[in-house]
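Practice record 12: protein with calcium ion.
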Amino acid sequence: MDSKKVLIIEDEKSISDIIKFNLNKEGFDVDTAYDGKTGLDKALSGSPDLILLDVMLPVMDGFAVCKKVRESSTVPILMLTAKEEEVDKVLGLELGADDYITKPFGMRELIARIKANIRRIDLVESFQNAPSNIQDFGTLAIDLNRYEVRKNGIALELTIREFELLKYLAERENRVFSREQLLEEVWGYEYYGDIRTVDVTVRRLREKLEDDPGNPAFIMTKRGIGYYFRRP
Ligand code: CA
């Protein structure tokens, strides 16, 4: 198997160096950028398999980079956020990041997160040759095998995480799941994040799926409990 390429966009060279060292040791190819603009250029031209993206960066901050990358790519983006900047992770997720890790972080945790996010892409790639398994939910058609979703026949650009959440709920129509359950089932590995990750991903999904995201027809809120999928 080809080695996977990780792009590190982080201006603190000491942090970047230690991450690069550890990723190389794990067999990853690593490219680095020390400001947001160079990072964005490398993200768009270098086709990395995963991007590690710091928030506070010179020239262009991590949020702007994330937003720009998402205009043309669903590559997994793992944001590096500072502990005191609670708002960062939510904003990052809203802009399309897949995951975040809080500084200071342990190298083992970081590597585990990177591997989990990359395994997910491999899984998707293997599914793209799978036979279709399209389920119709009114105006929405979900190909459960191929990670494809169409609304009124038009393909939607979902990130892997968004797709997996949608698939999990749609395969279990009308069953209500708590945020904690969804974190465990959909995010999978020992997730240190908080349940707002689920809320943000639901919000992003609604913006893509629903005619009126404020008054959803597919992904429903059960107040005080969690979320469920309904066939309109
Ligand atoms: Ca920084």
